[in-house]
Amino acid sequence: MAREDAVRAVLRRYGRSRDFHRQQTLLSEGAESDEVLLIEQGLVKVLLSGGNGTELIAGFYGAGELIGELGVIEEVPRSATVIAHTAGSAVHVPRAVFLSLMRTNQDVLLLVNSTLQRRLRNADHRGLSVAFQDVPTRVAKQLLSWADDRGEQTEHGVAIRGMSQKELAQSVGASAKTVDAALKRFRAQGLVRTSRLRYLLPDPRRLAEQV
């Protein structure tokens, strides 16, 4: 962790920090890969174009995460769109500077490799989930993942705030209708309570039994 923090400090030294506002587009699919972002504050979501004009959420990323490094390394256009889910800030590191740091700083190279490996594993797991798991199982797993990553412990359970039902559907690769049916079932079983942009898991262990 100390090594990764040192690498991020190097990127901050060579990059430029800029604030972003909620719903701001930070990177656009098809655009030139001319810089890498290091998220300092806030949360961003990565959107992939699906069939029939649909969009899938590849993931949400927060402070300390690199964004856009693969396109810079491979010198190809952006493969996804990155939108700010909340307000925050990011360090923008120009492509030439980032590639130079990868060649001259072993720790930067190690951070990039570990980031790419982790995201490849996540993509593999997501693909297997869509192929072999039903929608209720995928919904339960996604809610549990969000609870682990950014859930807030309250007297009534673990609260997940700021995530819409549309984003839940985009994250699990399912239609809004099937996700709504899964949530309705979980509500009837007392496993989940929902309100606008909020999910409450009274007992995450009970929900985990569904997966």
UniProtKB/TrEMBL annotation:
PROSITE patterns: CNMP_BINDING_2 (PS00889), CNMP_BINDING_3 (PS50042), HTH_CRP_2 (PS51063). The keyword Signal does not apply. Residues 20-119 form the Cyclic nucleotide-binding domain. Transmembrane segments: none annotated. Pfam families: cNMP_binding (PF00027), HTH_Crp_2 (PF13545). The keyword Transmembrane helix does not apply. Residues 133-205 form the HTH crp-type domain. One of its GO terms (molecular function) is DNA binding. Keywords: DNA-binding, Transcription, Transcription regulation. One of its GO terms (cellular component) is cytosol. This is CRP-like cAMP-binding protein.
